[in-house]
Hints:
The complex is a heterodimer of chains A (about 300) and B (about 90). With about 300 residues, chain A is mainly alpha-helical. Among the domains of chain A are: about 55-110 and about 220-310, no CATH class; about 145-190, no CATH class. Chain A contains ten helices and five strands, in the order H-H-H-H-H-E-E-E-E-E-H-H-H-H-H. Residues about 40-55, about 110-120, about 125-150, about 170-195 and about 235-300 of chain A have low confidence and may be disordered. Chain B has about 90 residues and is of the alpha+beta class. Chain B has one domain (about 5-85). Chain B has one helix and five strands, in the order βββββα. In chain B, a hairpin with a 2-residue loop joins strand 3 (about 25-35) and strand 4. The mean pLDDT of chain B is about 85. The chains are: A mainly alpha (about 300), B alpha+beta (about 90). The interface of A and B includes residues 200 and 223 of A. Strand 5 (about 205-215) of chain A pairs antiparallel with strand 5 (about 55-60) of chain B.
Amino acid sequence: MDIKLLGPELENVQNAAQREIDDTIERRKKEVEKEVLDNLSEIASDGKRVLKSQKETYEMMLELDGIVKDNEDLFLKVNSLCDKTGVSLNAIIGRMVEKNRELRGEQPAIDPVSVELPSSEDLDKKKADDVSLSFTNPDVPTYEIPRIEIDYDPDDIKYDWQKDAFSQEEDIKPVVPLENSAPTETTNVLPTEYSDVPSASERDYMIVKGRRLCGWESSQQRNNAIIRTMTFGENFEGKSDDYRNISTQIGNLLLNYRAFTPEEDNVSLDTLDQAIGASNTLTVDEKRTLYRKLNVGAKKVERYAQSIAR
Amino acid sequence: MGIDEIITLEDGSEYILLLSTEDNGAKYFLASKYVNGAPTDSYEVFKELVVDNEFAVEKVNEEALKTRLIETFQMQTDAMTAEEENEN
């Protein structure tokens, strides 16, 4: 059946249809807008960028770390941009790390570099002091302990059960018999020096004085330590102290990332946002180029980030 | 010596052995300096030695060898992370 609409009726239907179309478009726009707002943390242009401030901050740190590690020119560029904001990147990152520690009730970290360990010479001296014998009382006669010379292969010594003695025990004799020597107690004579082993300062190796198994809390913790070492420790050779310092601090920040929330430290986060905002001047392509150029590789940093985010 | 061991050297410093590999019959370790009960960013590549029946370590300073060893350690790390990714 054909329905013919004429005049005002046709106009009414057209208007109703148009309103419906407009309403639908408006509704859809609102839906999309809501979707975008609800998913602010979702991925942006390159499918990887996360918009939410904390995550963006975190990614920026990764980028900065890449810049620091890979390209000193760009590092200087970012640094100069940070200067324009009036904020020291170094100070901010350090402050954040310390603040997070304070919030968690931890003691400020001790810089490993500043930890003073006794030198090998000191230890050698201490060892020598420990074993040296000295008699200062004039009433006490002094003795020299005779050295024992063994002129046969120790492997040849056999214990004779019938004689209750070692087979070559008679061959053990003092090298220099001394007039005032104390009664020989061979079983108590211990070597006080190892002349055939050079001292620590004379050789290029170090004796291992103790070993114990590390009690990792989990295999994840162990893996993180390995990835961290390979990521942040690898290319430090020949870099300046500042370079090393910033990388270390960024590494510390990454380690603290889990415990870090914006609510805990609004001021520092805002300040940090200002500072790292400088790297927003880099285009996506520049950032991609940086990632490609990284010796250590953003992928590794990314993996590290993933591993600690789990 | 083996991985996951914390060794104390005669100067009092401690290192944790994270990875190991062999090269030309010698055993090498990637070790991280261990301070206040935790590994740090300071690392060394050590060669294992036995001197007078005592374990000893020598820092690897030869650039070519060190680079080769680090590449091997890197491969181990990559394999480890790839394995983790597969598990997840």
